[in-house]
Specification:
Layout (H helix, E strand, L loop, with lengths): L8 H10 L4 H19 L2 E4 L1 H13 L11 E5 L27 H8 L3 E6 L11 E2 L3 E2 L15 H8 L5 E6 L5 H7 L2 E4 L19 E6 L2 H12 L16 H6 L6 E4 L15 H16 L3 E4 L8 H12 L15 H10 L4 H21 L5 E5 L16 H11 L4 H6 L3 E8 L5 E8 L4 H15 L13
Parallel strand pairs: 2-3, 9-10, 9-11
Antiparallel strand pairs: 1-3, 4-5, 6-8, 7-8, 7-12, 11-13, 12-13
Helix pairs in contact: 2-3, 5-6, 9-15, 10-11, 10-12
């Protein structure tokens, strides 16, 4: 059974539907892996094992086996409400909260495609940071080296996948929260275009930056699951352009000769110096070699970001925290960084907020205009190797912010612009630490970046399962 969890997800679903693998047996293997690995990795913070087995038994008896992910195990990010269960939001402040009355759209989606949620994956407090080390649950650890962090905020999702506990996990991305942990853990994460996922409005958040997406072990797995996520009636006014093909089909068909721009420029450069480690550059070199080997033109993208990004992003990040769902008497239980952000957020005036949102829209237009002529943009993934657990200064918020920028300076501009992006491993250091790259697409072109990522994955040969999925202890 262990080997079945490392098959392509499409083959797992086929085996479950045919009855070659019973859903109950598949789930038992999942739970066994969680029981063995999670006490060390701390990727799953809440489990409802008995309820999951009840659901699996009913599916084994059912004659109806519909759903793109029928019978596959997964888990909800602990920012997503599921009716009947408590959502902790990664926070001490929620320790006495009741179970949710209704399910959020992403939990409903998991059910609609026939997957079985086994619990909640760890996240940073209210999903606010690019690492997953909370006062409520402790640090989530990297399965390649347990003294390293997992990234965030979808850190539990990435670790669950990278360690082999789950074949895929949903996440959300408001500044890199899918791509950062995927890069840290050596798996694949796709941030969809603004307005791509029917389970959420394109204007869901104040900043219009947050989108749901998935993390899986390979590009083909991410494509297969994302096709299911993108399917459905879109009942919102803001939608991404229709895709010309399924992402799974894009993986199978070479996209033709494309023009790829490469940059190591960051939008933070006028305020924060962001040195790029040699390991990060090695990952870019591996991707370039794979792209050129596939026949693509790879050139430097001479990006000149609009000045002022640091202030605008800071204001929006702070203002967005005023919507965090804690009650006033719980403020003292929040982590110092969250308290700081909320305190600064309530000081943002309506005029400043409106002006900041207008600036971000100018940044979006200017950046996409400068991308004209390129089919996709290649950047480093992380600027450094994944930091050790405890690296980030939780007591000095301003230093913490700079630390996060210096580790992850390439992800947030994609959210501001509403563009699709995929992160994937391309290189392993001599210490077996994964390093990867980010491919950013033109508006609405998930198909092209998935096709390119598939060629990079094949050319770089940095995704090797299950060799790199076994916890190193």
């Amino acid at each position: 059974m262990f080997e079945s969890r490392f098959l392509p997800i499409a083959k797992q679903v086929a085996a479950l539907r045919s009855g070659d693998i019973r859903v109950s047996d598949y789930l038992a293997d999942t739970v066994s892996a969680i029981d063995r690995l999670n006490p060390v990795l701390n990727a799953i913070t809440t489990q409802w094992t008995q309820d999951a087995f009840t659901q699996a038994a009913a599916m084994d008896r059912s004659e109806s086996r519909h759903g793109a992910l029928w019978g596959v195990s997964t888990a909800d990010k602990d920012l997503v409400n599921r009716a009947g269960y408590v959502t902790r939001w990664g926070s001490r402040a929620t320790s006495k909260w009741p179970a949710a009355d209704t399910s959020d759209p992403m939990a409903t989606w998991v059910d609609s495609v026939g997957a079985i949620s086994v619990g909640k994956t760890a996240t940073s407090e209210f999903g606010l940071t690019g690492y997953t080390e909370t006062a409520a649950f402790g640090p989530t650890r990297n399965p390649h080296h347990v003294d390293l962090g997992a990234g965030g905020s979808s850190g539990g999702a990435a670790v669950s996948v990278a360690s082999g506990m789950l074949p895929f996990a949903p996440g959300s991305d408001g500044g890199g929260s899918i791509r950062i942990p995927a890069l840290a853990c050596g798996v694949v994460g796709l941030k969809p275009s603004r307005g791509r996922v029917p389970a959420q409005s394109g204007l869901e958040s104040l900043s219009q930056m947050v989108v749901p997406g998935v993390i899986a072990r390979t590009v083909a797995d991410v494509a297969f699951v994302s096709d299911a996520l993108f399917d459905g009636d879109y009942r919102w006014g803001t939608a991404a352009p229709p895709l010309p093909t399924l992402l799974a089909d894009a993986c199978e068909k070479p996209p033709g000769r494309l023009r790829i721009g490469v940059t190591t420029t960051t939008p933070w450069a006028d305020e924060v110096e962001c040195p790029i480690a040699v390991e990060a550059l090695a990952a870019v070199d591996a991707a370039i070699a794979a792209l050129e080997g596939a026949g693509h033109m790879v050139e430097v993208w001479p990006w000149t970001p609009l000045p002022g990004y640091f202030r605008a992003f800071s204001v929006m990040w702070q203002a967005s925290t005023t919507g965090t769902p804690f009650r006033g008497d719980e403020f003292a239980q929040l982590e110092p960084l969250t308290q700081f952000l909320v305190g600064k957020g309530v000081e943002v005036s309506a005029a400043d907020l409106v002006q900041t949102m207008a600036w971000l829209r100018r940044f979006e237009h200017d950046t996409i205009t400068q991308m004209a002529g390129f089919d996709a943009i290649l950047t480093p993934g992380l600027a450094t190797t994944p930091p050790a657990v405890g690296f980030y200064d939780n007591d000095e918020p301003r230093r913490n912010f700079v630390q996060q920028i210096q580790v992850t300076p390439f992800t947030s501009f994609v959210n501001v612009c509403g563009l699709p992006a995929i992160a994937l491993p391309t290189h392993y250091t001599s210490d077996n630490i994964p390093m990867g790259v980010q491919l950013v697409g033109q508006p609405g072109r998930e198909d092209l970046i998935v096709a390119l990522a598939q060629q990079i994955e094949q050319g770089a040969q940095a995704t090797k399962w299950p060799e790199h999925s076994v916890v190193n202890f």
